[in-house]
Amino acid sequence: MYAKIEITGQVEVKTGMHIGGSSAFAAIGAVDSPVIKDVRTGLPMIPGSSLKGKMRSLLAKEYNVRMAQRPDEDAPSLLRLFGCAKAGQDGKVRKSRVLISDMFLENEEELRREGLQSMTEVKFENSINRATAVANPRQIERAIRGSLFGMNILYEVEHAEEVVEDISILAEGMRLLEYDYLGGNGSRGYGKVLFRDVFAEVVIGELDEKIIQSCNEVLQKSSRR
Fold this sequence. Notes:
26% helix; two-stranded antiparallel sheet; 225 residues; globular; 4-stranded antiparallel sheet; alpha+beta; 10 strands
């Protein structure tokens, strides 16, 4: 059978989040480590690859029986869901069943009504050389707390009997990420996120209503409303 399920929701930033952009051409005195931004709006964004990669790495820790040195050594359920460039026993490359789009800021107007002038903040940090006690100051840009980014995930149905299990793995990845961090510098308190109002619906083809209902029950347990 062929069908596609669209999973929508929001990623809420609970602590300043840094997903790095290029600083190759930064002027003197500019931020040392800027966040990645949408080139059209100049607002912070979350690349789909950042969310997908982080969820997969967290799921690998839970599902893999032994430490995998490469993604193609992940557990079969993860290879089935996220794909693998290495050909399987049938000689075919395993294509990912999930497509996660880039995420853009959705509540700029609301944040500006609260008096915020910028959708990012600059955090000043110091690293100290223990031998010389010399400080090395740096400026790290972060997406601000309270930012909401629109999430859109497309899941391609291949076998109806595997849909609920696959969506359950995705939901578990979201739950794991809520207890971890997205982006860099998580050990310093950056990048705590929550998933809100996650909902799945069939957008192409047909699927048993009981299956999509089960998917939504699983997703709602892993998101806040």
